[in-house]
């Protein structure tokens, strides 16, 4: 494909454009495990952090962890400033977005990362102005693969019913949200598929955004 194939672009955040240092992730899950009385292995922490098993709530239930107990504890143990300082930007993602800006393409963000974390991350990396809209999923708005957050972002971009769009993300929920909203999808696989334990099918499957034609 060529970047010029689409009139507007939407992106997931964590695992797609940015990632957190493993030491931060491990520390959060250690503290969450202490509070829940249930330790998390390295694999379990990675599966939940990156959503490698699909819907995180389904994964939690499979492990007999009630989502209503897990998420309040998890968010309470996240420190926005420490999270921001531990987060780094993928070079290939930066290159693509700069290329989109040069082409004057609208660019939006649709993320499961909560607003109290997303804001500090974008500010710390100095990339908030890269996005014409930032949509953080909530219980009220919906969670990917629900198309509602994606459609909200499209309205915010002012491109509803105009041109063709694509959503790029690192998980099955991103692909599902794109398709449910009538967009094409790009799956960027930043993990070994064998470790993920499943193959994610998107309209385009890449391991780096440099795989896309410019």
UniProtKB/TrEMBL annotation:
GO BP, sorted A to Z: DNA repair
InterPro entries: HAD-like_hydrolase_sf, HAD-like_sf, HAD_sf, PGP-like_dom2
Membrane-spanning segments: none
A family per Pfam: Hydrolase
Gene3D superfamilies: HAD superfamily/HAD-like, Putative phosphatase, domain 2
Source organism superkingdom: Archaea
MF GO annotations: phosphoglycolate phosphatase activity
Protein name as annotated: Phosphoglycolate phosphatase
Organism: Halogranum rubrum
